[in-house]
Task: inverse folding
């Protein structure tokens, strides 16, 4: 699996979440490519902001689903999202402060972190959903 690739091993089986995960990897790849190929700074900035916003939206959507389903590990999961977001926002600030190379770190962080988080934590939610609703979403 490439750094920004999504494949079935990352599928939770919850379509709305899987669609957002796929998009997340696409945007992270877009940021990586934009920076690496030397796109104009405003193109990199736009992609970076979009990636940060998309992460935020995804975390909020996931947590809303967890809350609605009564997922018992919601607080633990929220904390993982919060820590990742803090890291992302720190990199975003550094980028805004002129450290443009941070764009690469951000794309790699989102991709690596997401793969591990999906497999360990999002999967736990998917298992929970399956255990209470055989045909989720
Ligand atoms: Fe999550
Ligand atoms: Fe997720």
Result:
């Amino acid at each position: 699996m490439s750094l920004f690739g999504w494949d079935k091993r990352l599928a939770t089986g919850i379509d709305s979440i899987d669609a957002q995960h796929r998009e997340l990897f696409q945007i992270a790849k877009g940021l990586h490519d934009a920076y690496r190929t030397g796109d104009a700074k405003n193109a990199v900035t736009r992609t970076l902001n979009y990636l940060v916003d998309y992460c935020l939206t995804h975390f909020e959507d996931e947590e809303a689903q967890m809350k609605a389903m009564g997922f018992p590990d919601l607080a633990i999961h929220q904390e993982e999202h919060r820590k990742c977001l803090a890291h992302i926002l720190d990199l975003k600030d550094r980028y805004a402060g002129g450290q443009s190379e941070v764009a690469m770190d951000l794309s790699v962080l989102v991709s690596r972190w997401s793969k591990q988080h999906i497999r360990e934590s999002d999967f736990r939610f998917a298992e929970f959903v399956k255990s209470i609703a055989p045909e989720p979403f």
Summary: The two ends are 27 Å apart (CA to CA). The chain has a mean pLDDT of 93. The CA atoms of residues 65 and 116 lie 20 Å apart.
